[in-house]
Amino acid sequence: MWKYAAVAAASRAFSLNSSTRWVYRRLGNVALTRMRVADGLPERYVDRARRLLAACETNRILRPGDAVLELGTGWVHWEALVLRLFHDVEITLYDVWDNRLFTAFRCYADQLDDHLDDLGEELGFDPARVRTAHERLGAARSARTFDELYDTLGMRYVVEPSGMLEELPESHYALVVSADVLEHVDAATLPAYLARTTALLRPGGWSLHQIDLVDHFHYFDPSCSPKHFYRYDTATWRRRWDSSVQYVNRVQRPEWLDLFEAAGLQLRREERVSEPMGDVPLAGAFRGLAQEDVDCLQTILLHRRPEPAVPHQGTSTENPAAATIAPASRH
Ligand SMILES: C[S@@+](CC[C@H](N)C(=O)[O-])C[C@H]1O[C@@H](n2cnc3c(N)ncnc32)[C@H](O)[C@@H]1O
């Protein structure tokens, strides 16, 4: 528990003002680059690639020329990179601050090359398509800067500190995708944020989000439960543990499902990663959770923006039960 408390205290100290936050981000990025390069491409990133490509394939989400938006693109633009290797799409990379790590990107891109053949085989891709992916990855790996990478792959990087997706065109994107991002969006803004992502999708467009429901201090102190934060009510959490540099909104699965529905999206598929949490104490806000939701550590949600009903055209040929996301491992 002391590590949990120490990381939370340091996070609160770094959250004090814009200068301390700047220092935190600078130091964090140096440390993260070292760690990511030393550890290499994590298996969970390869799983994410597999799941994303499988979802796009099974549900025929993308056509050539489509636009894709990656939210919280982070250090290495992972989802965008993987998609662009296999699809002729234009990608907008969105974040609230510039936390890109070019050395880590190069490391992951180099190691991704070793996985392309297996991914192609598992997903039943034509060998020519896999060859094209290798060629595109080769071009990406020879970029010397992120700007060269964007020119090569047709990507655009947008940083918007408000984080409210204001500068992006409406009814434009075929797919909005993110991994380990939505749990960091301010809880108070989530209804507006998800309504905005719905508006950015073209009718019939898809939304695929991996949401990490774990107490993130657990990653620094695995001796604490992955759901240690359940024991704190909102006021105590804010007073003792919460910080802007390590913010997580603690929104749990049923609330996510309600938020997406209220934003006007239709659930097409959910994959969950769960572990029995035993009798972890639940503060008021969490007491109403069903046991399966208490135990849920990660949810991967595939939604669709409905298309306007076309009168007198008969029933849709689309089978909702066919929407699929391949299983993935936890963050
Ligand atoms: C845990 S990181 C994940 C980065 C990346 N998706 C990955 O897995 O490699 C969370 C990311 O979400 C971004 N973020 C936070 N609030 C956001 C918002 N309102 N809209 C978009 N991104 C946001 C952060 O800046 C950060 O890049």
Automatic annotation (TrEMBL):
GO biological process, one term: methylation
Residues spanning the signal sequence: none
MF annotations from Gene Ontology: methyltransferase activity
One Pfam family of this chain: Methyltransf_23
SUPFAM superfamilies on file: S-adenosyl-L-methionine-dependent methyltransferases (SSF53335)
Region (Disordered): 308-331
InterPro entries named among the record's database cross-references: SAM-dependent_MTases_sf
Assigned keywords, A-Z: Methyltransferase, Transferase
Protein's UniProt name: Methyltransferase family protein
Species this chain originates from: Pseudonocardia endophytica
